[in-house]
Design goal:
The complex is a heterodimer of chains A (100) and B (413).
Chain A: E1 3-6, E2 10-13, E3 17-22, H1 34-42, E4 50-57, E5 62-69, E6 75-80
Antiparallel strand pairs in A: 1-2, 3-4, 4-5, 5-6
Chain B: H1 2-10, E1 29-35, H2 39-51, E2 57-60, H3 69-72, E3 76-77, H4 84-98, H5 100-104, E4 111-112, E5 115-119, H6 122-137, E6 142-145, H7 147-153, E7 169-173, E8 177-178, H8 181-194, E9 198-200, E10 205-211, E11 214-220, E12 223-232, H9 238-244, E13 252-261, E14 271-274, E15 279-283, E16 289-293, H10 307-320, E17 329-339, E18 346-349, E19 355-359, H11 369-382, H12 406-409
Parallel strand pairs in B: 1-2, 1-12, 2-9, 5-14, 12-19
Antiparallel strand pairs in B: 3-8, 4-8, 5-7, 6-7, 10-11, 11-12, 13-16, 13-17, 14-15, 15-16, 18-19
Helix pairs in contact in B: 2-8, 2-11, 4-11
Classes of the chains: A mainly beta (100), B alpha+beta (413).
The structure holds flavin-adenine dinucleotide.
Residues 35-41, 60-63, 67-70, 72-76, 204-205, 233-235, 237, 241, 256-258, 292, 335, 337, 361, 363-367, 413 of chain B line the site of flavin-adenine dinucleotide (FAD).
Chain lengths: 100, 413
Amino acid sequence: MKILTCPLNGPRNIAEFSYGGEVTAMPDPNGCSDAEWADHLMMADNTAGIVREWWCHIASAYWFIAERNTVTDEIIRTYPASEVFKQRIDFDAPDGGGGR
Amino acid sequence: MPFGLLKYGLSRRYPVERQLPPRPDLKPSYDVVIIGGGGHGLAAAYYLSRYHGITDVAVLDKGYLGGGNTARNTAIIRSNYLTPEGVAFYDESLRLFRGLSHELDFNILYSERGHLTLAHTDAAIRTSRWRAEVNTHLGVESRLVFPEEIARIEPTLNLSRATRYPVLGALYHVPGAVARHDAVAWGYAIRAAERGVELHPKTEVTAIEQTGGRVSAVVTDRGRIRCGAVIQAVAGMSSVVAKMAGFRLPIRSIPLQACVSQPLKPFLNTIVVSGSLHIYVSQSSRGELVMGSASDPYPLYSSRSSLEFAEGLMAHILELFPFLGEVKLMRQWAGVTDMTPDFAPVMGLSPLAGYYLDAGWGTWGFKATPACGLNMAALVATGEVPDRIAPFTLDRFADLRLLGEKGAASVGH
Ligand SMILES: Cc1cc2nc3c(=O)[nH]c(=O)nc-3n(C[C@H](O)[C@H](O)[C@H](O)COP(=O)(O)OP(=O)(O)OC[C@H]3O[C@@H](n4cnc5c(N)ncnc54)[C@H](O)[C@@H]3O)c2cc1C
């Protein structure tokens, strides 16, 4: 059994978690071009080595960040997302959110 | 004659027939360099040399030829996909596979078994019907079958209603087949080498050079080689090699695991897949059950295999074939697969001129080996993207024109 240490729930079987993708800088949803947004959605560094990634403890729906080596599968560190993300992001579209 | 055989058996120097030439020295330049000597790279080399007269070609592999996912896959060949673009492409490949032993004059042990995708839910029945309609429309033999007929096709399958997920129906794809995966790589390699293609195992690409937006050279651990064109066909290492060429891909490298049981007398007629139970199984001509599942839950550049995989798989296999309870597993393994967001491949041009992509084959690319090689060779030889592979362009991700193949590719590979 592989153990992942959740910052909220402590060490748990990795089967209790869901992988959420690399932590990447999101372009400004109101200001970026379609191409930048598509790149953000689709493309990945897919690094072979140490990466920062999102994980979720499914039972408690708690999202956090893990640093993991994608070659050796060694988990280096886990911590709350608040260590990286200091402020809230609001998705208010320019036209008031009604869509086009 | 018996004496001849005895003499041969006792001889110290077997008169071994060498089918592949020994690895030559690298030349300073080639017309075409192919990175990756799996089935895909070798097929492209063969079709370039056979149909386009392009023989100044070097195939480079960091390991041994055909030792990547080509050696690790479960060899399922089918064309019962969901999108019209996918069905047409994989059907071309299936037709090429049927004639491949003759084309290569090398037995690839192609064996048509029929392919059953079990449906245990209404939603799965709906997807099966959808696939059957798209397939039939494009001339591919697939139809929806129900338990009475399934029992005739696969008599040992547990069709009891008293299971956790009773079988409600299945998509029956008559031409579903398996082949000897290694033989496919060897056959292409031998015939390409006969026409002058150079095969360079144990040659790792470490950098890619460009001049004025065009690829100009490939740097390897055995030296630098100039080249006119490059095909990248490195499966799980796609992102790593593309980075050397200066661009990113919509790919995540995720392991896929498989295993085989001890050999049993033949009892399984078809290839059986269950999306709801996340398993598939076929029986090899040696009698082993070849079994696998969906991809691992997270990315990893390692071909380790896990107990979780074997446990989860077996629980569901036993639901379908309870009498296998005492059967032993012989081997389990994994391969690092290049997964795309839409479960469809990336073939064609790249942001770097002269640099061609054969990637995003994830868990489904063995069956594509002939059609991909054929079309990639045509692309490199003519500079024109063949219609057959045009929809699989890298640009589709920027334009959000995805190919949505997940419903037909996430568990059945
Ligand atoms: C367990 C498993 C089961 C599967 N089952 C099926 C199936 O049933 N049906 C199906 O159609 N597909 C299946 N697949 C998918 C299929 O195996 C692959 O899509 C296909 O084999 C890819 O072929 P390839 O030639 O592109 O890659 P590979 O055979 O992986 O060849 C790529 C080569 O590139 C080389 N390489 C990498 N980096 C470098 C470098 N820097 N320099 C030089 N060489 C390099 C590697 O050494 C490797 O040999 C399965 C895959 C796995 C792992």
